Fold this sequence. Notes:
Blueprint lengths: L1 E2 L1 H6 L17 H5 L5 H12 L5 H18 L7 H10 L4 H9 L5 H22 L8 H9 L2 H14 E2 L8 E2 L5 H28 L3 E6 L3 E7 L12 E5 L3 E5 L1 H10 L2 H21 L2 H27 L5 E3 L4 E6 L11 E5 L4 E5 L6 H17 L6 E5 L3 E5 L12 H15 L5 E5 L9 H15 L6 E5 L18 E10 L5 E10 L7 H7 L4 H15 L5 H5 L3 H19 L6
Parallel strand pairs: 1-13, 8-12, 11-15, 11-16, 13-14, 14-15
Antiparallel strand pairs: 2-3, 4-5, 5-7, 6-7, 9-10, 9-12, 16-17
Helix pairs in contact: 3-13, 4-13, 5-7, 6-7, 7-9, 8-13, 9-12, 10-12, 17-18
Amino acid sequence: MIVDEDALRSLSVIDPSKGNKKSSRLTLYKMLSKTHSKIGADTLNNYIFRPLNNIEKIKKRHDSVETILGLLEISNQDNEIGLIANSLKNLGNVYHIVSQMKLGNLKPSIWKQLKNYLVNSTKISQYISGSDRLKHADVFQRFTNIFVSTSAVELLTSLETYLDFVTDPKTVSIQKGVHSELDKYRETYEELESILQSVSTEISQIINQDVNIAYIPQLGYLVIVDVQANVTDIEEEWNELFRTSTTIYYKNKRMEAMDDYFGDIYSLIRDAEVEVLYALKDKVLMQQEMMVASYESLGEIDVLITFAKLSHSYCFTKPEMVVEPIFQVKDCRHPLFLDDHISNDIEITKEKVMVLTGPNYSGKSSLLVQVGLITFLSHIGCFVPAIGKIGITDRILTRINTRESMTKLQSTFMADAQQMSRCLTRSTPNSLILIDEFGKGTDVYDGPALLASIIKYLSNMGQSSARTIVVTHFIEIFNDNLITFPNPIKLSHMQFLVNESENKEIAYLYKIGSGISTESFGIYCAKRCGIQEDIITRATQIIQMVKENVDLTDMISETSVREKEILAKAEKVVKTVLKLDLDST
């Protein structure tokens, strides 16, 4: 399913405030970001930005979520799902492991990550195999088909045989008995300090001066003498290699003999260790295809466990996916406002174009987004806060939010019109179009005319039209049969109750009903938002006169009491200034 960036932001799948990483606004992405592993988070990204439109693949995801949900309802933290989730938390990053090994980076952290992956993926395989429910679910079955447990156990055995993870938790060393030459080099290196001490004592006695013997990798064994000492008369074969401000480093025949006998012991140890590690690396990379594929499969398991946990917490249900382009659900709730949102029954079947009207603040835009989010959730494989049928959708197209930019030379309405154009040109009979208040940014005649033409265009298409929901305040389009539609459209409104007292109050029911709303109650909404009372009063008078077909020219040109007071004060100030003798000052 194709969902462009405009739609993702308009539906609050991702944050509409582009680039604001610290935004506290709730989005569907944040709601779903409860995965347990790095690969789970990466897979969730893939699910979000690449929804499915293949009904069989979607149903397999739903079936897997249903299986997981059945185990979650047992309410046992130690059941298979809880154990798998704990193992996913400690899963090593296989992408990083493989890429670093190919580069020859064999740092201790890479081996530790590899061990974590092998241990925890093997545990997950065992948990799945031990569960009659899980081993038959699609996503778990694919993992067990990919993951070769015998190969993983063999690799894990090799790691624990070759490498010591216990002695020093900060590093990884080669176990004794793995490489006989390496063991000999290590024994020599461990005895080296006492050997050097013995040799230094012997040479000190011969030359009657205090000396030290040092081993420096790649330089070998050296005699260290104080800079004030004079050894040239003692033994001609002493060759100075370098000096510091306090000491001189010499190489003599005795040191050369030690070089030949012991060798560059540290470098020999490192070379032997590298030989062992590279042999082990080759074994690992022979299984890289299996490791990467099973790792990706674990990412899917992680995401579907997250979907199941969300569905369990908020009583989401499994949608019935159908090939027909319909949206027919009951008890439909907004996925982002589950605790306090009122449910609705929404049906788009034979009448593929639905027009939704109602007062300001009555929940029209919220219901529009709700339909889009539920369609989106169903196509990524999650359960939804609704019960019913959802048709396979190839695109979600929106004209909801206007994304303005200083870098684009276009007006607000031009941006809206471009979004509307994309909706009409890219849609198919299997698409979902969501239109919110199109036409409000232009002339009072052009806006309704354009919207009416768009609705009629979609109506002309009949069953070839995309499923469309249009939210509008242009109720004059539908009054007095000004426009006729060749195919029926579904006229709906958001219900409300009006208290006809002096201080007219409106109770919003947030329930969808049949027919067109007669009023928008914009003045009431403005009053609730704190607009000054005199402005509200004047607006009310004008509205009443419009309804009574009274000529507004005299009223609009009439000066209000407040304006008269301001003019009187201004006139008084001007007269005072004119009386001043400015020349004398």
